[in-house]
């Protein structure tokens, strides 16, 4: 599910020009994510006081969160599920590998 994707998660692009490429989420902005090395665009920078020459740099632009999915170690998209453990903690785990826990979502405090 795309709502569980956070910063530093490993994801793969499932739709668009960069379909099949994998990367790490650098930031998340509501419904969009910036993934390292994905959706690269060239930006023309003017000459400023810090940079004495004009230059062309490549930056990552955001893509919609529905176009990415969690990926396994071999860069294939995987489905994730949420499991409640002892009615206290919620865990995200990969659907195929039932024991591999991705992260703890929520812990109830008593």
Summed up, what is this model?
The protein is an all-beta fold.
Kindly describe this structure.
The chain is mostly beta strands and 110 residues long. It folds into two domains: 2-72, SH3 type barrels, CATH 2.30.30.30; 79-110, no CATH class. Helix content is 0%, strand content 47%. It has strands spanning 10-13, 22-29, 32-35, 40-45, 55-60, 63-64, 68-70, 80-85, 89-94, 101-107. It is elongated, with a radius of gyration of 18 Å. The two termini are 29 Å apart. The mean pLDDT is 86.
Radius of gyration in whole Å, from Cα? Answer: 18 Å
Q: What is the helix tally?
A: 0
The domain count comes to 2
* Strand element count: 10
Return residue spans where pLDDT drops below 50 for at least 5 consecutive residues.
Answer: none
First and last CA, distance: 29 Å
Query: CATH topology of the largest domain, anyone?
Result: SH3 type barrels
Order of helices and strands: EEEEEEEEEE
Shape: elongated
If classified by CATH, what would the architecture of the largest domain be? Roll
Share in helix: under 10%
Mean pLDDT: 86
Largest sheet: 5 strands, antiparallel
| The top level CATH class name of the largest domain | Mainly Beta
Cross-sheet strand order for the largest sheet: 6-3-2-1-7
Indicate the structural class. mainly beta
Strand content: over 45%
